[in-house]
């Protein structure tokens, strides 16, 4: 499972919305293979060198998305990040789009939570709400 502070998730979504407003919309989560589909507020869960979430608004030239690493899998600080990523995300790099409309309403109904948990299986992504 990968966890992120709820404040970080809110910041990533808000940054994506601000970038979209300033730069013409949201980036397509399917790299343009399905034009005009899925271009909405959300975030991307990325497995690469560590596991992190990034904002999905269009970016101006040279601008970078907002990035937050998971609490369990940061390459600078977690000595076993590589093993953790392979065990819970897989050996290949990858990216999964998560719609803001799936996350934010659950945050708003559960005021005591501090972290959403994201679990990946071969076929599914599941979410849990955690209080630490």
Fraction in helix: 25-40%
In N-to-C order, the SSE pattern is EHEEEHEHEE
Radius of gyration: 15 Å
Task: Let me know the number of strands.
Answer: 7
What's the story with the biggest beta sheet?
4 strands, antiparallel
Terminal-residue CA separation: 15 Å
User: What is the domain tally?
Assistant: 1
> How big a fraction of the residues is strand?
25-35%
Query: What is the structural class?
Result: alpha+beta
Shape category: globular
Number of helices: 3
Average pLDDT number: 90
- What low-confidence regions span 5 or more consecutive residues with pLDDT below 50? none
Strand order, largest beta sheet: 4-3-2-5
